[in-house]
């Protein structure tokens, strides 16, 4: 749905957009920087990361091609980034400043509908993450995540999946080995499925 939002703009409206290319590992914003634009990732990948009191990296969000960030901050009473915004792949990002965004929301109905859809999907994802974090055990988190994804998940690496589940990589590896031995799941290098 997100990839359609730029397509709702006229040529005239697109003239007010700022488009930038960032290299891998480039820092777009630092934690605490003011969020004064909505940003759309046209290509590449962005992560919003912070560091815990114990020194562990916390990934708040991964934004991939055609996804948006800053939309949950720009109109808030504390519009400051909660982590560093970093490219994990070379990325092209489109920025829509707050004034232009306000104008678009008032004058372009299709843009407004797409923007509201993005906001709704973001809220749904956030609620799902909050529910995931309410489970104490790693197994409960994995089962909840599988359930939310029709009992089958695809992932790049175990590390990425562990970050998504907010558990230690080693804990997840042990859990997957256990569940496979118990014939609860089928596992391939990038896929896990619950056995019916």
What key attributes describe this structure?
single chain; 196 residues; alpha+beta; six-stranded antiparallel sheet; three-stranded antiparallel sheet; 6 helices; 9 strands; 37% helix; elongated
Describe the protein's architecture and organization.
The protein is of the alpha+beta class. The chain is elongated and about 60 Å long. A hairpin with a 5-residue loop joins β3 and β4 (57-64). The chain has helices at residues 11-14, 98-107, 109-134, 138-148, 158-165, 169-181, and strands spanning 18-22, 27-29, 37-51, 57-64, 68-69, 84-97, 152-154, 185-188, 191-194. It has six helices and nine strands; from the N terminus they run αββββββαααβααββ. α2 (98-107) crosses α3 (109-134) and α5 crosses α6. Strands 1, 2, 3, 4, 5 and 6 form a six-stranded antiparallel beta sheet that branches.
């Amino acid at each position: 749905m997100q990839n359609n939002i730029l397509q709702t703009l006229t040529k005239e409206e697109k003239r007010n957009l700022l488009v930038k290319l960032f290299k891998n590992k480039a820092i777009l914003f630092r934690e605490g920087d003011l969020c004064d634009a909505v940003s759309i990732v046209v290509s590449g990948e962005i992560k919003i990361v912070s560091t815990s009191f114990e020194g562990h990296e916390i990934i708040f969000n991964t934004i991939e091609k055609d996804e948006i960030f800053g939309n949950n901050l720009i109109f808030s009473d504390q519009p400051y980034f909660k982590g560093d915004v970093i490219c994990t792949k070379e990325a092209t990002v489109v920025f829509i400043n707050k004034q232009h965004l306000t104008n678009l929301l008032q004058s372009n109905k299709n843009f407004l509908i797409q923007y509201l859809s993005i906001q709704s999907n973001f809220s749904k994802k956030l609620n799902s993450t909050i529910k995931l974090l309410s489970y104490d055990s790693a197994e409960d988190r994995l089962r909840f995540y599988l359930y939310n994804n029709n009992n089958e998940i695809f992932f790049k690496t175990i590390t990425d999946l562990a970050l998504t589940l907010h558990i230690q990589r080693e804990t997840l590896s042990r859990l997957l080995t256990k569940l496979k031995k118990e014939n609860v799941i089928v596992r391939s290098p990038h896929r896990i499925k619950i056995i019916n």
